[in-house]
Amino acid sequence: QVQLVESGGGLVQAGGSLRLSCTASGRTFSRYAMGWFRQAPGKEREFVAGIGTINWSAARTYYADSVKGRLTIFRDNAKNTAYLQMNSLKPEDTAVYYCAADLDTPSGVVRTSSSEYDYWGQGTQVTVSS
Q1: CB 39 within 8 A of CB 46
Q2: What pLDDT score was predicted for residue 55?
Q3: Pairing verdict, β 81-86 and 95-102
Q4: % of the chain beyond a pLDDT of 70
Q5: 50 membership: H or E segment, kind and range
Q6: Model confidence over 28-65: pLDDT tens digits?
Q7: Could you give the CA distance from residue 70 to residue 84 in angstroms, rounded to a whole number?
């Protein structure tokens, strides 16, 4: 079992920044991949960013095209926490953001399908005003 607790959402003006955190407990955090997804009203949940386990000195990351260059995912294994740094936010980034844990992915791999993720956080609302 893995428990995920998110924090850091809120209301921000367009062009602003937020940092989301996702703290995990229950399994060895460094051994599984993490992802961030979002779901806007009336839309399906979509992949935002993912980070694999650390191979050598770095962990592989992968981003949706819509967020490349603006959002950054990173992890601190000592704190059992994954982060999503969100810069240059746009109104279309408004959604509930979920972190998720992928326990079965091969080392270093990042998967983008929500069905591959085993555990989910409760979600945190991000609202970007124009």
Answers
A1: yes
A2: 66
A3: unpaired
A4: 98
A5: strand 46-55
A6: 898 899 999 999 999 999 999 999 987 665 789 999 99
A7: 10
Residue carrying the six token digits 């935002």: 48
Answer whether 84's CB lies under 8 Å from 73's CB.
yes
- Residue 87's nearest CA partner among 110, 67, 103, 61 is 67
Residue among 43, 41, 42, 22 nearest 117 (CA): 22
Give the distance, in angstroms, between the CA of residue 12 and the centroid of all CA atoms in the same chain.
18
pLDDT in tens, 60-74: 999 999 999 999 999
Q: How far is CA 1 from CA 20, 76, 109, 116, in A?
A: 22, 20, 21, 16
Q: Is it the case that residue 114 has pLDDT exceeding 90?
A: yes
Structure tokens at 107: 């080392």
CA nearest to 94, candidates 13, 35, 3: 13
Give the whole-angstrom CA distance, residue 28 versus residue 99: 16
The first and second tokens of residue 57, run together, are 């000195």
